[in-house]
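Researcher: First entry.
Model:
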Amino acid sequence: MSRFTQSLLDADARLNVPEPARSRILLELAADMEDLHREYLGRGLSADEADREVLEHFDLSDQALIELVQVHDSPLQRSLENLSGPVRGPWSRMLMVILALFVTVASGSLLFRGELYRDASGLVWILMPILGLGLVIAAGKGHRLFRGSDTWSPARRHSLLRLLGLAAAMIVVAGGGLWFELYRSALRIRAVPGEALIHLVGWLHMAAATLVIALSGALVLGFLWFFLEAQVRRQELAAAANLLEGV
């Protein structure tokens, strides 16, 4: 429960936005109000005076709420929520966990095959650090989500999008690098037309190995984002419900 629960309930009743954006907006608003309240207390105001100043500072008019919705319910955010939103209920989550474990084990077994790196392009020296960075970010975020404080804070959502960015970066780097390698192969073929088949088959072999590494790594990062995002959403819904209790 928040000291500003009544104001938040009023805002909740007028928010024309579905979950989980509704909970996220209320939590962000409550966090900003509490931060300003502490600032007023630090200036020497009494608790009642700080409450009044905060309520005067935050304009919870319909127009202000519309602007909040535009910030927290952008088309990109809705698209990402649609990706992680369909999994509801214990059976759906269990099936998704089994699928994710199967894909992760299958992808991981490929990523640990030495001959794959021998046949792949030198791009692996770029792709593997990207994957490693994503795994470090996911491990840190998972530790904070599952072992951290029960108190919600906006920082819980920070860095999640980096996982998707790194997954996309692996695909872009692999695709761009392979097109460059194809161009180099075309130059060699033009110089020695009789070896065209050799160069083409060599490029296809290298491209297949490189794409297996890039797509497997991107898939692992994508699943990690999926589950961490779902966990953040569950915590946001619980925190928002707790925030509005007690009136």
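Researcher: Second entry.
Model:
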Amino acid sequence: MTFRFERHYADMAGATFASEPYFRSAWRFRGELLSQWIAEGETVLPRLLTRFTTLERRYVVNCGIEDGAMTGLFVYVPKGTVHAPLDALEHWSEGVLRGKTVDMPEYVNYDTISLLADLADGVDTVLELGAGYGLQLFRLFYAGAPADARYVAADISQAGLDLGESLSRLEPRMNFSTVAFDIARPDWSVLKGSRKALIFTHWSMMYAPKVPDDFFGGLAGWPGEAVMVFVEPLGFQWGGGHPVSEKQREAAEMGALNGDFAEALSAAAAKGWIEPLVVANDVFSRSQHPFDLCSVVVCSKPAG
């Protein structure tokens, strides 16, 4: 079972590799693939998203690099051995479950969407920070989160947001919108008019070099109430003892992962801006990679 899709972007050829142009071009690349599938008749959004997430579970967007410069070639390459379905039933990888190493079959995943849908009861706004093209928002809508809520994809990448806007046209029943948002410089005016919100991150707070002082402080100035959920590979900040947590700590020391989220959360709680509810540490990973092992932090922001 193999998959091949590639594009060459002449405007990227020769540019020095950096994360921002890579991510911008990667979203452009993904958008062209999804546009091709839509043109081929794949216009039912749940099918399209499932097909795409299955692909990205097995393949990663690779950017050609020579001597530190991008070649302009973007292509999907396998993350590892791509197993046929019957072989996958017998292939188990070493993963983590609640801080313990376990053998993990390919078809087992942690259902964060059901958790978020349960916590979305009664909200009028669902806001994802670092949403990319809004995949989790679409999945939440189909998982039974409030049908009349406003779903907002907030991200720093305009290319990702443009893709989300394009996909949302396939689901006219959903009140979907996008907004430019930088976690390093949060603008909470996106919540204007909302009374109760579900605000969440899903592997995006991890990339914030530092949680800004006005992240929780700025949110405290909004009069509404919120449930906040952070699904992030940051369990080491709460003393996770698994070896993968130690790898996370090492990654943070090298600047590859956020290192102060727990400290910022504690400071915000001390000021009464938020109330921590649950820290579920080292919940799940299908591998031993430090970026895969997620912890789930839930807190509330009171009204007023």
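Model: Note on the second entry: The chain has a mean pLDDT of 94.
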